[in-house]
Amino acid sequence: MKKISVLIAKRHTTSLSLEEEFVAALKEIAHAQNKSVNELITEIDGARKKRNLSSAVRVYILSQFQNRQS
Length: 70
Known about the structure:
This protein is an alpha+beta fold. The chain is built from three helices and two strands.
């Protein structure tokens, strides 16, 4: 597990615990979308329902890779 610090909506700092593979995938997706990791996390945070943020990030990453396979 790797703990990363993120800034959500340019005003709220929090940390996430993610496996290193998910951190790498998150960076890859952010780069592909021409966004910073913080911007991407802010979007994921705004769209999540009742999941905690780390889980929402994992589900988002999974959905992105599943969409690439289609």
